[in-house]
Specification:
Helix 1 packs across helix 3 and helix 13 packs across helix 19. The strands form eight sheets. Strands 1, 4, 5, 6, 7, 8, 9, 10 and 11 form a nine-stranded mixed sheet that branches. The longest helix is centred in the last third of the chain and has 21 residues. The N and C termini lie far apart (76 Å). The chain is an alpha+beta fold. The chain contains 19 helices and 33 strands. Bound molecules: guanosine-5'-diphosphate, phosphoenolpyruvate and manganese (II) ion. Its main location: cytoplasm. It is found in: Cytoplasm. Pfam families: PEPCK_GTP, PEPCK_N.
Length: 622
């Protein structure tokens, strides 16, 4: 049957008219196919109107996926106890025969499509299906990518309204021109707590060729919010094919001397500090997770893919995160997920104030000391518990930069991860290629609760993107190295490490020290301070940091702290190079330049070791 004809018969007239207003046969076909497959009792089509958004918000509560909290605009949502993080094992890239994507799970495309279509048959039976339109990046700009989401979860649709720019009018405007991404989600059968029941049939399948992502029997945002980490797999591929960058990066403004504004991006794996860095009170946030970077007249211009924050709540406390704290305690539209609730108020781990001994959390009724089926004590909130809120709620958001159709010029790009023993807190690359290879491509980080599985395992995670890398790493890196050639003004590349520890496992830095590293990097972008040349890049001079610690944090920064933090740890660096080189040798199809750069770094380290020994004080290099 003709898709429009089918939709006309299947939808209520009011809903059908909204679809008919978009002149795009590919969209009609897609909608007809999946409405038929999922077989919901009812379909609601969201336009950009306030009424439609209100409808979704109301339904999230009516269907029990969210519960209102005491403060206006606040709700709580729970994911199933075993559905609290990204499921890497059951996330697969569907590849046509002959295509190789190392490091991530792949599956034959035909077979994967068959399986997921079987799982999704009649999966939304008896439920309401929401059809939502959004765009990635600012509207009507070089960055814009339209996307359509089908979901039977009002919570997922509601989250997307908070996190993304509305796209119904864009679809209407673009008509047949719209080259859109497609997301099909169903939470599947729900239990009495309204959480996905059939976790064994949880699947996240990414069809690159059809630019479609299927997600079934899960609710956790990282697995379900189509425009976030699911779209990311698709945009990385587009970027590599088209010669731009789609990155797992925050985007922020660092305020330099005399009102100077410098924009930075930062790529750290999930739970390694993107949101907390972009939220530093005296700087300005543009985005905290995903950035598109394009070349425009020889400049690298960046834009936030999103317009909201799906942030980790654990550890948010009034002292270190005053702005987030304030936002979370004001009547903004916020979805709290997997937190402890008592008398209508949300609580979370390490929030810096006393919290109740009982209430409701992601395990149901909760009391202090409660154990799960595996005998593990259940904390008040899940480690990966989150808050979802629009950037408009933040007094430190740079909303002008957020909506700028040409994005903002990027002055610096930062890479970082959880590294207890190798990288110093901050350093600068010698040049683009050195940074891309030794800081981006060589990134390793300890695993966290953002993904299911063991925590604290040092893992190769180039550009903090490995979980999402939908193309061959060699092609991805080649694109990165090539990108430089399009640039007249090149961003400086930096590496940070907030997670250095001493022999006893104590952190070597305070959470707010990153504010100082940012100011130093800002000065470096403009050549305002000198730096010390080491075998692994430039590091700050003690005097400059001492001054900045005083100015920024009103702290006295001791020579001892500096020396401990910035000691060049030659054996650790060498071991790392060896690990990284082996990984790239084994995988094949890697640009030769990468090996040359790693070899250069190794030689410089060996020479330095000859002269100064294994652990070299930064003062030695001055
Ligand atoms: N020790 C330490 N922990 C940090 C630091 N910055 C952030 N964290 C913690 O790391 C976790 C994840 O941070 P977040 O910024 O949300 O990471 P994202 O997922 O990359 O956005 C939170 O629990 C933070 O409290 C830091 O400088 N030092
Ligand atoms: C949504 C996620 O993002 P991040 O932890 O990077 O904020 C995730 O990893 O599931
Ligand atoms: Mn984050």
């Amino acid at each position: 049957m003709d898709p429009l004809e089918y939709l006309k018969n299947r939808l209520e007239p009011e809903q059908f008219e909204k679809i008919r207003a978009i002149d795009n046969p590919e969209l009609h076909e897609f909608l007809a196919k999946y409405i038929d497959l999922l077989n919901p009792a009812k379909v609601f089509v969201c336009t950009d109107s306030k009424e439609d958004e209100d409808y979704v918000r109301r339904k999230a509560i009516e269907y029990g996926e969210e519960k209102p909290l005491a403060m206006e605009g606040h709700t709580v949502h729970y994911d199933g106890y075993y559905d609290q993080a990204r499921d890497k094992a059951r996330t697969k890239i569907l590849v046509p025969k002959g295509v190789e994507v190392p490091f991530v799970n792949t599956m034959d495309r035909e077979e994967g499509l068959r399986e997921i279509h079987e799982i999704m048959k009649d999966i939304a039976k008896g439920k309401e299906l929401f059809v939502c339109f959004f765009v990635l990046g600012p509207k009507n700009s070089i960055f814009t990518i339209p996307a359509v989401q089908l979901t039977d979860s009002a919570y997922v649709a509601h989250s997307e309204f908070i996190l993304y720019r509305k796209g119904y009018e864009e679809f209407k405007r673009l008509g047949r021109e719209a080259k859109f991404l497609k997301f099909v989600h169903s939470a599947g059968e729900l239990d009495e707590r309204k959480t996905s029941k059939n976790i064994d049939k949880r699947r996240i399948y990414i069809d690159l060729e059809g630019e479609t992502v299927y997600s079934a029997n899960t609710q956790y945002g990282g697995n379900t919010i189509g425009l976030k980490k699911l779209a990311f797999r698709l945009t990385i591929r587009r970027a590599v094919q088209e010669g731009w960058l789609s990155e797992h990066m925050f985007l922020m403004r660092v305020n330099g001397p005399n009102g100077r504004k410098t924009y930075f991006t930062g790529a750290y794996p999930s739970m390694c500090g993107k949101t907390s860095t972009a939220m530093i009170p005296w700087e300005n946030i543009v985005g905290d997770d995903l950035t598109f970077i394009v070349d425009m007249k020889g400049e690298a211009r960046g834009a936030n893919v999103e317009k909201g924050v799906f942030g980790i709540i654990q550890g948010v406390n009034p002292e270190d995160d005053p702005i987030i704290w304030q936002v979370l305690h004001s009547p903004n539209e916020i979805i709290f997920s997997n937190v402890l609730v008592k008398d209508g108020k949300p609580y979370w781990n390490d929030m810096g104030i006393p919290i109740p001994d009982e209430g409701e959390n992601h395990s149901g009724k909760w009391w202090k000391g409660k154990k799960d089926a595996e005998g593990n004590e259940i904390p008040p909130s899940h480690k990966n518990a989150r808050f979802t809120v629009s950037l408009e709620a933040f007094p430190n958001a740079d909303l002008e930069a957020l909506e700028a159709p040409c994005g903002v010029r990027i002055g610096g790009m930062i890479f970082g991860g959880r590294d207890k023993d190798t990288w110093p807190p901050v350093r600068e690359a010698f040049d683009w290629a050195h940074g891309v290879v030794t800081m981006g491509a060589a990134l390793e980080s300890e695993t966290t609760a953002a993904t299911l599985g063991k925590e604290g395992v040092r893992t190769f995670n180039p550009m903090a993107i490995l979980d999402f890398l939908s193309v061959h790493i060699g092609d991805y890196l080649r694109n990165y190295l090539e990108f430089e050639k399009k640039l007249r003004i090149k961003p400086k590349i930096f590496a940070v490490n907030y997670f250095l520890r001493d022999e006893n496992g104590n952190w070597l830095n305070h959470k707010l020290d990153k504010a100082v590293w940012l100011k130093w990097m800002e000065l470096r972008v403009h050549g305002d301070v000198d730096a010390i040349k080491t075998p692994v890049g430039y590091i700050p001079k003690y005097e400059d940091l001492k001054k900045l610690f005083k100015e920024v944090l009103n702290k006295d920064y001791s020579r001892e702290d500096y020396e401990k933090q910035f000691t060049i740890r030659v054996p650790e660096f060498l071991a790392k190079i060896e690990r990284i080189e082996k990984i790239y040798r084994d995988v094949g199809n890697i640009p030769e330049e990468l090996f040359k750069i790693l070899e250069g770094e190794k030689q410089r380290l060996l020479e330095a070791r000859e002269k100064y020994g294994d652990y070299i004080s930064p003062f030695q290099f001055e």
